[in-house]
Amino acid sequence: MPEYTTASRFQLSGLCFLLQIITIILFAVFVRYGPESSPGFCSQVAACPRHLQTHPSVPLPPGFRDVHLQALLGFGLLVAFLSRYGPGSVAISILIMAFAIQWAVLIQGFLHFFLNGKIYVGAQSMVSADFCTAAILISTGAVLGRVNPVQMLLLTLMGVILFTVNEYILLSLMGVRDSGGSLTVHTFGAYFGLMVSRILHQPHMDKCKKQQDTGNQPDVFAVVGTIYLWIFWPSFTSATTVRENAEPWAVLNTYFSLAASTLATLVLSPILHEEGTLRMVQIQDATLAGAAMMGMAGEMLVTPFGALVAGFLAGLIPPLGFRFLMPVLCSRLKIQDTCGVHNVHGLPGILGALLGTLLTALATADAYGGRLEFLFPLVAQGSWTATDQALCQLCALPITLLLAMLGGSLTGEFCLR
Amino acid sequence: MPEYTTASRFQLSGLCFLLQIITIILFAVFVRYGPESSPGFCSQVAACPRHLQTHPSVPLPPGFRDVHLQALLGFGLLVAFLSRYGPGSVAISILIMAFAIQWAVLIQGFLHFFLNGKIYVGAQSMVSADFCTAAILISTGAVLGRVNPVQMLLLTLMGVILFTVNEYILLSLMGVRDSGGSLTVHTFGAYFGLMVSRILHQPHMDKCKKQQDTGNQPDVFAVVGTIYLWIFWPSFTSATTVRENAEPWAVLNTYFSLAASTLATLVLSPILHEEGTLRMVQIQDATLAGAAMMGMAGEMLVTPFGALVAGFLAGLIPPLGFRFLMPVLCSRLKIQDTCGVHNVHGLPGILGALLGTLLTALATADAYGGRLEFLFPLVAQGSWTATDQALCQLCALPITLLLAMLGGSLTGEFCLR
Amino acid sequence: MPEYTTASRFQLSGLCFLLQIITIILFAVFVRYGPESSPGFCSQVAACPRHLQTHPSVPLPPGFRDVHLQALLGFGLLVAFLSRYGPGSVAISILIMAFAIQWAVLIQGFLHFFLNGKIYVGAQSMVSADFCTAAILISTGAVLGRVNPVQMLLLTLMGVILFTVNEYILLSLMGVRDSGGSLTVHTFGAYFGLMVSRILHQPHMDKCKKQQDTGNQPDVFAVVGTIYLWIFWPSFTSATTVRENAEPWAVLNTYFSLAASTLATLVLSPILHEEGTLRMVQIQDATLAGAAMMGMAGEMLVTPFGALVAGFLAGLIPPLGFRFLMPVLCSRLKIQDTCGVHNVHGLPGILGALLGTLLTALATADAYGGRLEFLFPLVAQGSWTATDQALCQLCALPITLLLAMLGGSLTGEFCLR
Description:
The structure is a homotrimer. Chain A contains 15 helices and two strands. Chain A has helices at about 5-30, 65-80, 85-115, 125-145, 150-175, 180-200, 215-235, 250-270, 280-295, 305-330, 340-360, 365-370, 370-375, 375-380, 385-415; strands spanning about 30-35, 120.
């Protein structure tokens, strides 16, 4: 967090106070807890801003509350991921998280309001807000250390709105299936942050120096973050795919992916780094990449073998990206990337979306059994072929990239300058 | 932990051994696991030492076991909170926790024994002991660094007994509703510890210096502690309010409170601290204050907006308290407060109790629906008005303060000198 | 992790790549997710490689998925335990974990393949692989700092196979009950690692110096590790003993054991260490010893008092072992033990197995009620007396020791030299 003057300190304090007051007033006017007997936030398929759109009347599965806890632990690791810039960056990350959650509940509620005329809040809208907050935290990873807290708050303000629009278009209008957020969380978050970083580029100030040379303390965070990731990310990725009496494919595939991506680090690291010591941050990056890879495909892979191959490939991306891609990005495209979100979230997210598209095209009732109705209800009902669904999933990628990059440019240009 | 001599080392070792042997013998004579088919520890309403007194015959909800896990994680953060005094303080905190749990199971069991003639132990008594241990850990936060381990053990010995008496009076005799422990845990723990600290004041030794100037390492604990708090405290606060098929109000309100209290830090911190850097411990304090605020009111708030306002106010207390109140407390009242438990637990706990009282007075069947019977069974049955219940909740505050302060004085005077 | 040359770096990278490719190919050929309606991995009692062999047709209890999460958290702490050798050791531990999970799923699957002709993978096989990985991580604790990553991978390769053979003999052929792995995890892991360490002894290089004198940073890991242990190990120990509508004895006993073993540290530490400061690693060691003690006996103890006594005794072992046993082991038997696995896992594991045997011999239908059928189905059916079962449990100890020590010697001699 850069040093700031007395004026900017009061500006930050005032803006923060204003935002909290506005949020409180909007909550007071619009937001209520859902009635006791209602099925919750997502009572109508068309307007459901989150992944539950295919089974609106199904009651919350047991353990849904815990899923929220685990989702929040997902933040723990993201915060640990952001900590590589130093301990101060953790403080600001948690503040961003606190604001983003409130704001996301509100904005996603407003979307619902315009469609249905009321805002009901419950455990489901909290999970929904968690996904949004994860995307915002990824975005901040690209600009950390070069923006002040006021700009961070404005980035959050705009990012949440754009995330909600993108998610609504993809999940509700187009019927795309992306339960773990390969597209909506990882790809959107990464490219939104990268474009903001591009706009904020200051030629005389920034230098394309290596980022990973931090001291000893971030290693502590990296260890805790990696363990968190291993434990809680599989559940985060599969938060909305819980089903009774079925093997949790999304969870198992994510574990296999994490295991393979971690080993991929050990394959590349001794070759790329002459000093030959393995850093915890490298393992944490590989773990995050392996998780981003399984965001869309996790619940679609029918064999553990596929998860191992995909995870291994995902684990190769961060070391190669940090070594070969980041210098080019920085010197040619003037995009700085403090925490390497492009290597860790952007590229693995895109690859995950492509893998998910491929698997969608190959989806058959034979392979999926009863899952098909859960995953692709329109295909199961016969009103759509698997190829139609795959085309739809494929179209979601350029739409997300467009919205993230356009939105990031406009946010950087008009809000953060 | 102050250095201690050979004599005191053997004294500590001997006392610890003695306490463990006594505990083991008492366990051997009195404590048994509950029979397979029994409804557990709280089979009779009148004698139930913990919050389950309103629904004794209801079986344990699924996930109750996990609740215990999460309660223990609550300790994780309290231990992290105590760590601001240095790494050695964590070691002693965990020892206190280990002893307090055993002792609390025993003392709460004895209460049951005198009332019912047997001690049965199960998952419920473990949760009950967890709440007690949390209060003790808060108390130790006030005296950390100025008492030796032997005194810590004696403080635990007496604190557990007083906590059990206070809880029995409030929850069982008076029928007060305090599921998250605004009064029984936070207020009791803080003022008990503060009075012990007052008695142990040594004019020539203690100086009213600022406490928050610790090195770099506690920041690591503060980060881990804050993330733990965000994840597990909402469940701790609502451990005994779990209901099937209902939105978990206590959990959601606590989340909103945490989010608002965290932002409140960002509002005040740049104004109060000229150096302008945000410390993680400040965020951790705000988070704890936001949680203490929701202890009683969490399950009673019917709108998220109320939780945001209450959390925001709670988040303002610690920074203001550390800046303006603590020097006064120290110089005028001779009360030192190592970890600032008065700002973080005491005042927010009192405010939370007042808010809970207000909400109780406003409770109507319209607003609460089916929850009313769960929250205030006597009001729902019509044998009591909401005002009666509110008066009862209000009376609980001075009783708790009296017991905590009187008990703390006597403990400090007669046991720890 | 010792420095390694360019040649050995490429050797490591190549071996790692090769192992991952072989694993992927074997997964591709043999491993599939279980069919939707199948009862999972353990459909036949005789071939079930893990503890579920006594109730194959029972569906997964709710929360089983979470059990896996908690099992993985068990790794968190083991990794923290290994971290005492320095931050680099955490990185290699996580890599070993990533490889061991894949390899364990495969090897345990192969066992099933030879018996049943197919490999089905699901949540149960993941839990099974977690137990195996825990044993491997314990083994690596004995040799950490004196072997290179290539040797670590080979140790994992062989250790997983031997663990699977030992577990198959004990649980499936002999019908031994060891739900928390006193024998299969702690004893096997410790003695396997110690024998490898013995074989790798290099007289001119190794010196029997004290190990616990590490810097400040491991204390952070020890704090986090101990809190993890307290929260998640009780569930790990009782992962396969979950039953509906019954007090979770295994969980409660483990908690009581942890509490007593932690206090035991405070009894011994002031006497043994003149400097008189309590180190977090000592508390972590005591916690692990208390957990290892309850591995087999946790679900068999009918009174909390027994758990307190057993835990207290277990907590005395690590401080005494580090002070008196380790120098002898090192100077006489030429066995170095980097992380003290003999004190923390080996001896408490053996004691736990003996306690479990004693409790088995005393098992009666009166004391256990409906649990007897769950714990010892053959005894409950009357086809076996409790004494038979106890003899069987007793024989498991020398078999495990033999397999671990013979296997460790051969692995050290032929694979790691």
